[in-house]
Amino acid sequence: MRLEHHADGARRTLATDIAVVDTFLSRARGLMFRRSIPDDYALVFAFDDADDRDLHMVFVPFDIDAVWIVDGEVTATKRLPAWRGLGEAVADTVVELPAGAAADVEAGDRVNVVE
User: Fold this and answer.
1) What is the dihedral of CA 70, 19, 30, 66, to 10 degrees?
2) Is residue 109 part of a domain?
C-alpha cells in the first residue's frame, strides 16, 4: 500500500508505510503517545462521509503535516506544531504525515491510497 500525490500531471509517492484508522478508539488515539514516526509513514483517518474534521496535537511531541481530502481531492493542508497544533477542514479522509512530507501538496491536488 502507498499514498500517492497527483498534481500537474505528475505522480509522487508520499508514503509507503500506511496505517488506516477507522474505529472510534483508533481515531481518538491517532499519533498520541508516540515518540516519532518513520519518514515514509502516513496515518490515514477514513470516514464514511465528508464533514468538518478537526485534529489536535495534544500528547504528540513532533510536528506533522495534515491533509484533508474529499473524494480524493485535497481540500486543505496544514503544518501542525507539536503539542499545541490545531487544524480543521471538511474531509472524508484525513492524512497525517511527517513534517515536510506534504510540503508540495495543495488544495485541488489529488491524494489517494493505492493498494
Assistant:
1) -40
2) no
For residue range 27-38, list pLDDT tens digits in order: 888 888 889 999
Indicate yes or no: pTM above 0.85: yes
Contact between 39 and 101 (Cβ < 8 Å) = yes
C-alpha 83 chain-centroid distance: 17
User: Which residue, 47, 65, 89, is CA-closest to 5?
Assistant: 65
Beta-strand runs (E) in 16-109: 17-21, 41-56, 64-70, 73-80, 86-98
Q: The domain that contains 15 carries what CATH number? A: 2.60.120.1140
Residue 35 within any structural domain of the chain: yes
